[in-house]
């Protein structure tokens, strides 16, 4: 399956929402740690779920500078583009 940017962000929010309290507002600008309170173990759990959702492997090096959901979207988009599954 190929993905558009909008589909990627929607899926990211869905996955991340399942890891935070229902009262937390989740959008592309949400910071994983600062806004959503996801700790390092939680980030790894989120990444595992995202790899399953997008059927790909995300290198840990791609996640070093990730702070927001938008940053995660860029990392996922980069990986999907590398495997030829990103729609313009």
* CATH-defined fold name: Non-ribosomal Peptide Synthetase Peptidyl Carrier Protein, Chain A
- Counting DSSP H or I runs of 4 or more residues, the number of helices is 3
Give the H and E element order: HHH
SS-derived structural category: mainly alpha
What is the CA-atom radius of gyration, in angstroms?
12 Å
Helix content: 40-55%
Q: What is the averaged pLDDT score?
A: 90
Sequence stretches where pLDDT stays below 50 over 5 or more residues: none
Number of domains: 1
By CATH, the architecture is named Orthogonal Bundle
Beginning-to-end CA distance, first to last residue: 14 Å
For the secondary structure, the number of strands is: 0
CATH homologous superfamily descriptor: ACP-like
Biggest sheet features: none
Provide a compact summary of the structure:
This protein is mainly alpha-helical and 88 residues long. It contains three helices and no strands.
Main attributes of the structure:
0% strand, mainly alpha, 88 residues, Non-ribosomal Peptide Synthetase Peptidyl Carrier Protein, Chain A
Structure description:
- By secondary structure, the protein is an all-alpha fold.
- The protein has one domain (5-82): Orthogonal Bundle (Non-ribosomal Peptide Synthetase Peptidyl Carrier Protein, Chain A), CATH 1.10.1200.10.
- The protein is 48% helix and 0% strand.
- It has 3 helices and no strands.
- Helix 1 (5-17) packs across helix 2 (40-54) and helix 1 (5-17) packs across helix 3.
- The chain is globular and about 35 Å long.
- The two termini are 14 Å apart.
- The mean pLDDT is 90.
């Amino acid at each position: 399956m190929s993905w558009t940017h909008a589909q990627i962000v929607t899926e990211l929010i869905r996955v991340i929402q399942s890891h935070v309290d229902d009262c937390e507002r989740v959008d592309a600008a949400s910071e994983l740690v600062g806004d959503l309170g996801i700790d390092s173990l939680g980030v790894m759990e989120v990444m595992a779920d995202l790899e399953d959702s997008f059927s790909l492997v995300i290198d840990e090096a791609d996640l070093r500078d990730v702070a927001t959901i938008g940053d995660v979207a860029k990392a996922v988009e980069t990986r999907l583009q590398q495997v030829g599954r990103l729609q313009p």
